[in-house]
Request: fold
Amino acid sequence: MTGAILLTLKLAGLTTLILLLVGTPLAWWLSRNRVWWKDLISAVVALPLVLPPTVLGFYLLLAMSPQNAFGAFLKAHFGIVLPFTFEGLVLGSVIYSLPFVVQPIRNAFEAVGRGPLEVAATLRASPLDRFLTVALPLARPGFLTAAVLGFAHTMGEFGVVLMIGGNLPGETKVLSIAIYDYVESLEWTQAHILSGGMLLGSFLLIFTMMLIEKRSGRLY
Reply:
């Protein structure tokens, strides 16, 4: 039980960090560009919101397989085999939780508007300076929301992690899989403990986020 908890926290934390690093420039680009194919990229990013997790997990498993181009490339050049490994779970989690991080950050950037950035430009601030000293601080509540949603969503994954990682203790057996195992074997007490812990943890995450956002609103 402890191993599944630690593995889930590790997966959620690492996934959230990667998503913030990858999602921030993507959200900035989506919020600022007006090219005609931006909506196509937005639709691709949002696809995990409506696509059944098992379907996404199935196609990711096929893509990661050494019998297909992407998986064969990773194995041949880096010696990496992703299916049924923790690294595979991380990649699948990043893709599955991408819209939960990108969309709040994009909304925050769009809420900043062009006015503050244009004012900074008149003061001869470079594009990078405007992004780092104006856009990022003003969009801070969006980053908080994105981090909480990305972390919580990854914690609750089931279909994607089961398809990609299977059920290997200490390697891919996260909390959602452990709960499923306990229910399947009629071990209700253990299932209640893990499920209740996830319910309480999710509530505390959301409640804390709301309090911080409320405080941030007062400060600004």
Summary: The chain is about 80% helix and 0% strand.
